[in-house]
Amino acid sequence: MKILEQYILRRVVLMFLTALLPVLAIIWTTQVLQRINLVTDSGQSVGSFMKLATMILPTLISTVLPFALVIGITQTLTTMNNDSELAVVDAAGASRSTIRRPLVLLGVGLTLFSLVMVSFVEPAMRVNVRTMISTAYADLLSSVIEEKTFRKIEEGLYVQVSQRQAGRGLKGLLIADSRDPASQMIYYAREGAVDESGKTLIMQDGEVQRKAPTGDVTVIRFDRYAFDLSDLSQERGQTRLGAKDKSLTELFDPDPMDPSYQRNPGDYVAELHRRISSALFPIAFTLISLMLCGDARSHREAHLHPMVSALIAALTVFWMHSYATSLTEQDGGFAVLLYAIPLLAGGLSLIYLMTDTRPKLPRFASRLIGLAVASARKRLGQDAGSAA
User: Fold this and answer.
1) Looking at the predicted structure, is the pLDDT value of residue 232 above 70?
2) Where would you tag: which of 78, 113, 115, 300 has the fewest CB atoms within 10 A of its CB?
3) Can you tell me where the transmembrane regions are (predicted)?
């Protein structure tokens, strides 16, 4: 690679990382905060929470990466154009491939990186996150770790513990169970304990109040009562996996006995084609960026900032791809759109680059923008004159 190509590539990579890391940190923080209840509800340690946060991070990279690449390319080339560096490159007789070649190679490299991430790394991290959350919530004792606080175990079931004791002992138990519409049950007990399997709550020296739909209340005292938690523990401890949690090989050949596949087979088809086609975003967005700012331009030429134009085009492609994914979930025949959208966007950009032409807005749109700019300048001129 030539020195000039290395110079351009180095500047683009630096700007790419500058755009990627802050945006990734912001999105990662919002995703992590949504799971802060892992600590507050289940009593997990801060170390476990940080482990969970670390596993969430790889699932966000492939989404943010293409847009950071757009920002890195457009900002670098726009700065070089404003500093007349692109004009100097043209005046020196260097071909435009000198500018395009390192960036296309970068786009191809990030495309391969994205394919590996969305195919294998992301699904593995998603499975680990789901397993960790399910394990944390599987034990009822962990769910009620905070003393003197009502905890919602599931819809219609609330538990309060006055005091935790060493081992698995509890004091001051209160359970409100309204899951059965035919009756409402309230359990009081002085002492209790959850067995080692986590499937039974043994209550001692208490009473149970049963309220019928008619309003009649029946009170029964007991010396020892076993509250069954087997269904609850099994449900809360079960890791439910969907199409997004499967690796690429599992999507190619799904297990026909998998309950999630039996419920939504269209999700597996859509997810398979979404992963492969979304990996094309980096190279497609690279070509779009080069089309919009890959050559020298006059400072007097009125045009929208290349970064804004490129981001609008990239977001349009991304939204169209997302809409095509939802269509594919309903009908697998729409899967061809998932590949056609990025390939068509990149192909049109490549045609413009090969023919050294620039995309132009329709005349009516150019006129509207020109009138808006002229009106804004007129207003700013009047305001400046009034201020003077």
Assistant:
1) no
2) 300
3) 12-32, 52-73, 103-121, 276-294, 306-324, 336-354
